């Protein structure tokens, strides 16, 4: 089975080809970062236009690098949501046109499911597993029970962690996206210098909250001597922020492991996915937690943590080999929770 995957839900135009032997035959990611940088964040309209301009070429490059033509494909998978709707529509229309013209099955993939299943592509992890999904738009703990079957154990009641990284970076005068910059600066910093809060730590359950942490970063900046921030101040704040984030994730994952044990009789495997999972410090902290609990640990390689087409192709392949596909009248979905039955969380809004 060979599947083409297309991803256009945020600021990467990406296409990839994977096969049923878990091989990535091509994985092209075209970042729009330069187009959005002047605005300090992703501008949906600019993103949608850039996807229109790039998507055909990115798909052609993926097929050519994989050395396959449409005739060799078993299906076309595309992110059908959640995400910035203009971009999602570009990808979905492109994939539908290809599926129609080449008479191929069409699969609309949930972007969150694509992140969630990536470790099955990279590490052949079996169900069930405990997933910490941390990205720019989401921060959730889920029991992944099967393709299409998720039980949400916890979610953020305000900001996602990637958002907190990005906003803190912006206040510190670092560029967008903030996560990688904060991680780089934190290496030279003193993570004990600033006393930042650990929201939700010690509370029952495994929900998250990050807006208070972000506010304290702002107050810490305001309390420093007026004028330009010194390099060392920036480094120390980044390190202190990252440590606080690590403490929160560790505490929340510990509780989630207890909840997962009640459901499935084991603590894990603990799996981390989404853009923030690219952070080496946080990967190390969570791996140490898993080790401490005697649970297996898995996280995709850094390039497959942030948005890419391989994860979409793989999620499509998992559905196709179960005999599932989607009709060509599929509507792109700006919201698409993995666990529609999850109890609503006050203030969580779209992040639930
Ligand atoms: O999964 P992703 O590429 O897009 C979404 O679906 O949101 O995640 C992007 C998020 C951004 O907030 C970015 O700052 C964060 O992932 N991120 C990181 C790192 N690399 C990316 N956060 C912390 N450390 C990193 N190294
Ligand atoms: Zn993502």
Q: How is the topology of this model organized?
A:
Layout: E1 2-7, E2 12-19, E3 24-31, H1 33-36, H2 44-66, E4 75-81, H3 85-102, E5 106-110, H4 111-122, E6 129-134, E7 139-146, E8 149-155, H5 161-171, H6 178-186, H7 211-222, H8 231-264, E9 270-273, H9 280-293, E10 297-298, H10 309-320
Parallel strand pairs: 1-4, 4-5, 6-9, 9-10
Antiparallel strand pairs: 1-2, 2-3, 6-7, 7-8
This protein binds 5'-O-[(R)-(carboxyoxy)(hydroxy)phosphoryl]adenosine and zinc ion (ZN).
Zinc ion binds at residues 111, 115, 135, 274-275, 307.
How would you describe this structure to a colleague?
This protein has 10 helices and 10 strands. The protein has 2 domains: 2-117 and 303-342, ATPase, nucleotide binding domain (Nucleotidyltransferase, domain 5, 2-Layer Sandwich); 127-300, 2-Layer Sandwich (Nucleotidyltransferase, domain 5), CATH 3.30.420. With 352 residues, it is of the alpha/beta class. β4, α3 (85-102) and β5 form a beta-alpha-beta unit. The model has no long low-confidence stretch (mean pLDDT 95). α4 packs across α10. 42% of the residues lie in helices and 17% in strands. Strands 3-2-1-4-5 form a 5-stranded mixed beta sheet, with helices on both faces. Bound molecules: 5'-O-[(R)-(carboxyoxy)(hydroxy)phosphoryl]adenosine and zinc ion.
Q: Can you summarize this structure?
A:
The protein is an alpha/beta fold. It is 42% helix and 17% strand. The strands form 2 sheets. A 5-stranded mixed β-sheet has the order 3-2-1-4-5, sandwiched between helices. Strands 8-7-6-9-10 form a 5-stranded mixed β-sheet, sandwiched between helices.
């Amino acid at each position: 089975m060979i599947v083409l995957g297309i991803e256009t839900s945020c600021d990467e135009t990406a296409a990839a080809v994977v096969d049923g032997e878990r091989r990535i035959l091509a994985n092209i990611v075209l970042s729009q970062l330069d187009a959005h940088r002047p605005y300090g964040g992703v501008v949906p309209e600019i993103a949608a236009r850039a996807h229109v301009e790039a998507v055909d070429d990115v798909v052609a490059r993926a097929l050519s690098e994989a050395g396959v033509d449409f005739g060799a494909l078993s299906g076309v998978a595309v992110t059908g949501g959640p995400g910035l709707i203009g971009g999602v529509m570009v990808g979905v229309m492109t994939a539908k046109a290809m599926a129609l013209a080449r008479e191929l099955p069409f699969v609309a993939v949930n972007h969150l499911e694509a992140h969630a299943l990536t470790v099955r592509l990279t590490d052949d992890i079996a169900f069930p597993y405990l997933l910490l999904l941390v990205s720019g738009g989401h921060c959730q703990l889920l029991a992944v029970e099967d393709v299409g079957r998720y039980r949400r154990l916890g979610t953020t009641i305000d900001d996602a962690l990637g958002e907190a990284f990005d906003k803190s970076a912006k206040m510190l005068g670092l560029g967008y996206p903030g996560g990688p910059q904060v991680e780089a600066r934190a290496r030279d910093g003193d993570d004990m210098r600033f006393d930042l809060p650990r929201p939700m730590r010690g509370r029952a359950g495994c929900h998250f909250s990050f807006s208070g942490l972000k506010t304290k970063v702002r107050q810490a900046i305001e309390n420093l001597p007026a004028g330009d921030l010194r390099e060392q101040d920036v480094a120390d704040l980044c390190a202190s922020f990252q440590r606080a984030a690590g403490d929160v994730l560790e505490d929340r994952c510990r509780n989630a492991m207890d909840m997962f044990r009640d459901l499935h009789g084991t603590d894990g495997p603990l799996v981390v996915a989404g853009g923030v999972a690219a952070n080496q410090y946080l990967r190390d902290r969570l791996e140490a937690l898993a080790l401490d609990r005697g649970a297996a640990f898995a996280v995709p390689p850094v390039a497959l943590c942030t948005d890419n087409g391989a994860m979409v192709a793989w999620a499509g392949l998992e559905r196709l080999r179960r005999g599932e596909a989607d009709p060509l009248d599929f509507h792109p979905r700006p919201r698409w929770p993995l666990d529609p039955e999850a109890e609503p969380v006050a203030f969580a809004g779209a992040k639930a």
